[in-house]
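User: I'm curious whether this sequence folds into something compact or stays loose and floppy. Could you predict its structure so I can see for myself?
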Amino acid sequence: MILASWPSQAAIEEQTVVIRVIPTKEVEGQLLEGEKHVLSKTVILRLPTRVNIDRRGIDIDSIRCPICDEDLESEDYLFVSCVIAVEIWKNILDWWGISNVGIKNLYDVINLADRVPLEPKHSNFFDMVVQTAIWSI
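Assistant: Here's the prediction. I'll summarize afterward.
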């Protein structure tokens, strides 16, 4: 019989990274904490990319990107380096009139709204566009 156990709170906190906090209200000059984007390191490593499927010992024909066949299909490659992802981010940045922003890895994508020169009132909308693009890829 196999018994499963829940990870300790310390183990969960060690594997969790708070990406950004979006203030939702300003009351008497104080920003109230709003929605948190939380990305678990274990969740990223569990995305069913071909590299992760292969790591789990599942036999697949190839671990290369099925779209372009130029590199291994990892999280960073899928969301940042694949020709489709590069085109998506280029189009989004052009659409918003943003230039000179480098995207090197998945964390750069997730934190993109914090790194672009936008007014705070526009930053939340831009972040929604970025999160929707991540979801669609």
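Summary: Strands lie at 16-21, 25-27, 30-32, 36-40. The chain has one domain: 9-136.
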